[in-house]
Automatic annotation (TrEMBL):
<dbReference type="InterPro" id="IPR023393">
    <property type="entry name" value="START-like_dom_sf"/>
</dbReference>
<protein>
    <submittedName>
        <fullName>SRPBCC domain-containing protein</fullName>
    </submittedName>
</protein>
Length: 152
């Protein structure tokens, strides 16, 4: 597992960037920037610390899939940590086995640092070797979309 890091400067307050990124008040903003990963990306659950949350979408055949996760930490407008510990396969939640072991306890962290009206978003994500190329290209596109949405 490798840790990837991405940064994006956004001309908006940390509060606005945080709310846009997480879809607080309007889940559509989350769905719009995460569409870069999967056009049907959404989440079910809460961003509250300690909460279970599903990051889900459907594949080309309409089958539901995604990640079972926990919000390890959430300091509004400053930091969010997501711990992935399972996968969604159709209607099943799978939290053990070889597919899960590849991702078990991987973290995805978002930091928000505001200075002079510009918020720097830093994403740190644990990624398995077989997804390195995908995430190296897709995170950049997703953060560009987030920037576009938050600067509106």
């Amino acid at each position: 597992m490798k840790k990837l890091q991405f940064k994006k400067d956004i001309k908006a307050s940390a509060e606005k960037v945080y709310n846009t990124m997480l879809g607080i008040g309007n889940i559509e903003t989350y769905e719009q920037w995460t569409a870069e990963f999967n056009p049907t990306s959404t989440y079910e659950g809460s961003w509250e610390k300690g909460s279970k949350i599903y990051f889900i979408g459907t594949d080309e055949n309409g089958k539901r899939g995604g990640m079972v996760s926990e919000i390890a930490d959430n300091i509004p407008f400053r930091f969010v940590s997501i711990r992935h510990y399972g996968i969604i396969d159709g209607d099943k939640e799978i939290t053990e086995g070889t597919e899960v072991e590849k991702w078990a306890n991987s973290l995805e962290n978002y930091s928000f640092h505001e200075h002079n009206g510009i918020t720097t978003v830093t994403v740190e994500s644990d990624v398995t070797d077989d997804y390195l190329d995908y995430f190296n290209t897709t995170w950049e596109k997703a953060l560009n979309k987030l920037k576009e949405l938050a600067e509106k």
